[in-house]
Amino acid sequence: MRGGGVTVGREAGLATALAGPRAGRSASLVRSGRKFAESVLKAYSGVYFGSTLLPGVFFLAATFVAVPRHGLLGLAGLLLTQGAARLLGVDPEGRDSGFYALNGLLVGLALGLFYRPTPALFGLLAVAAVWTVAVAAAARSLAERLLGVPVLSLPFVLTTWAALLAARRFFGLELTLEPIWAAGLGAGHLPALVELYLRSLSAALFQLSIPAGLLVLLGLVLSSRWAALLSVLGFTAGLLTYELLGGPTTDLSVEIIGFNFQLAAIAVGGIFVVLSPGSLALAALAGVLAAGAGAALLILLQPFDLPPLALPFIVTVHLLLYALGRRTRAGRLDLVRGVPGAPEENRQRARGLARRYPDPATPLIYLPVYGDWWISQGHDGEHTHQGSWRHAWDLEVRDPEGFTCRGEGTSPADYLCYGLPVFAPGDGQIVHAVGHLPDCPIGQPDLEHNWGNCLVIWHGGEVYSLLAHLQPASLVVSVGDRVVAGQLVARVGSSGRSPRPHLHLHVQGGPLPGAATLDAELLHYVEQEPTGPLYRTHGKPPASATVAALAVAELRREALAFPVGRRWRWQGQLAGRPVEEEWSMELDLLGRRSLVARPGGGRLDLHGERAYTTVLRHQGPGGTLLHLLALGLPRAPHTEQPVRWTDELSPGPALTPLGRVLYELALPFGELAALRTTSRIVPDPALLIVETRLEVAGLLARLTRPLPDTIRLVASSDGGPVRLGATRGGRPWAEATCLTEPA
Fold it and tell me: Rounded CA gap, 143 and 315, in Å?
């Protein structure tokens, strides 16, 4: 019995050892297969600027409706191009995103429009696949670096032209017109204009049938409702242009240029330009310009017997984006920042950035003093902050009774702010320093030396900060010194045009005192309000406000550090059901940090710095612990102060399907709903406790899914988040505990 048991144990161990590598290989193959399938569907989806997988399924199916072997040629072009990209070792991001595959797909479909699928055609496709990758890599670099515009499908156009020209010397290829004959498939059942629209829509995939157009339209609606509407707008504008100018509207289908109007409108209406009333007008203009470009290219390319393909759309979008990128003022058309998404996503992201973060063009500095300071004069002040010097602050100290001095205040030393330390408001270099002027008697400013003792710090570009009216002989830095934010540089005095001691602070566009001020904002400060201290990530505090620099606590920063490679395993209940999730912190090639949840695949992009942690974006389903964290911790300062702060988020998963449709349709014109949060630090000597109240406001407030009223996060400095809870109507709604041991 014992001997048999040992034998069985050895056999089981051997079986496990043999199965382990096989299981690992199988799992690796499954992951590779899934990754490959995703890149294929992204290529199909990318033809219409999509990035999600489901629309790609419909676009793929559209290529097989009329002539299945035509769809196979497109798939063959895609696969050959992916293989060529791997062979040449081009950037993995381009391969995974479907960029190279998209161009290869279009090359295969375009050649399949003219030639039968013979061995000679597959040989030409293989050669064209290598061309596509090489041209795509070069064109992408040139377009993005030199012109600052996306390359779009230009590699497909250039490669297809080269292949069509080469095919005239390759006599093994056989011409075919079968896909064009399929234009009649499904015709006659819809109004003529609708049929022409559907044919044009599917022509981006070189399909000319009504069923293919319907599949593309369905996929487009699933990808983005506004992309579908923009395609209608672009088609209408281009068609009207042709009709008003007396052009043959058969060009839209027979010459296959109608899809250019639609793609141009989608591109500038919401993909690369933020969706707005202005972008809708620009989309209509793009349809008009693409129609003109299409007609011109038909004539220009006629001697070479080459089709325009997607060039009218590419030329139109490149010209418009290049022109928009060279503006000195943004106007009513904002270019999309970062990686473009669907029009609705771009609109919400732009609004979120405008609401939650400073404008990239706005200079940002820190308060150069510690403790509570009273702003005696702010921007557009009634005394001296006017004209070219309107963007400035005067800072003083007041006691609890509101007095700025002791006793009668007859000398500078009587004032509470006099002699207090002044710190650098940002990293930079000292470019101007004056420190020998005497303090002025109270009420007798020195009008000859307006700024008195002062420092000018260069922060890069054309951004300089000025600290004025400093105490004589208090400067501890000299011209040429490098300084960092928070470094001691001088002390508050009463020199220059200063009737009483105070610190003058502003940002200017030149190195000499007196240069015109810039409209700057302060970073990470606390403003005293009747209801308590309010933390602001950035802003322009007004006159009479009492402000203080945020007191950063290192232990609180560590509690929200979320180190890369760590995992947090959660267990508990959410909305009456048991829940288990595991979070892992991942870092991508661009340095972006994301919490990824499994199961479910939710992703939470985070940004953390010394002063605070903020959620950049949540992707994934609602009703998860990760989504609960996104709602309860949209941002948090690293402080022990019992501060509160507010935020406003996109309603996103909080809306019902009907509410989401209505919300998205109104996006260019305004928001029908917003998710507002009010958070606070709960005092605790050992733990970071953040409590957040949620409120859905707006016309669609009733069309929302159940959400908690309050979310509570508890985190420790050595382990990060340890508990996550929520209540609704005063009753527990969620309660989860992190089971992972601290690192």
Answer: 12
Strands (E), 364-468: 364-366, 373-377, 392-396, 421-423, 428-434, 454-458, 464-468
Gap between the Cα atoms of 346 and 367, Å rounded: 33
Beta bridge partners of 432: 456
For a pLDDT cut of 70, what percent of the chain falls above it? 93
Q: Rounded to an integer, what distance in angstroms lies between the CA atom of residue 326 and that of residue 349? A: 23
Which residues, 6+ apart, have CB-to-CB distance to 678 below 8 Å? 644, 645, 646, 692, 693, 695
Predicted TM-score of the model (pTM): 0.84
Using omega within 30 degrees of 0 as the cis cutoff, is the peptide bond preceding 599 cis? yes
Q: What are the Cα distances from residue 536, in Å, to 54, 143, 375, 645, 679?
A: 41, 40, 16, 7, 12
Report the distance separating Cα 392 and Cα 311, nearest Å: 51
Give the tens place of pLDDT for each residue, 532-547: 999 999 999 999 999 9
Q: Which residues contact 353 (CB under 8 A, 6 or more apart)?
A: 337
* Amino acid code (one letter) for 516: A
In the structure encoding, which two tokens stand for residue 647, read together?
A: 């935020």
- Cβ burial, residue 266 (10 Å; 0-12/13-18/19+): buried
By CB atoms closer than 10 A (0-12, 13-18, 19+), residue 281 is middle
Q: Residue 428: name the closest of 464, 462, 393, 453 by CA.
A: 464
β-strands 593-598, 612-619 pairing: unpaired
State how far the alpha carbon of 590 is from the alpha carbons of 93, 269, 339, 586, 593, in Å.
11, 27, 12, 11, 9
pLDDT at residue 541 in the model: 95
At 433 the three-state DSSP class reads strand
Nearest-angstrom CA–CA distance, 114 and 27 = 42
pLDDT band at 47 (very low <50, low <70, confident <90, very high): very high
Instruction: Classify each residue of 415-454 as buried b or exposed e, where b means 16 or more C-beta atoms within 10 Å of its C-beta.
Output: bbbbebebbbbbebbbbbbbbebbbbebeebbeebbbbbb
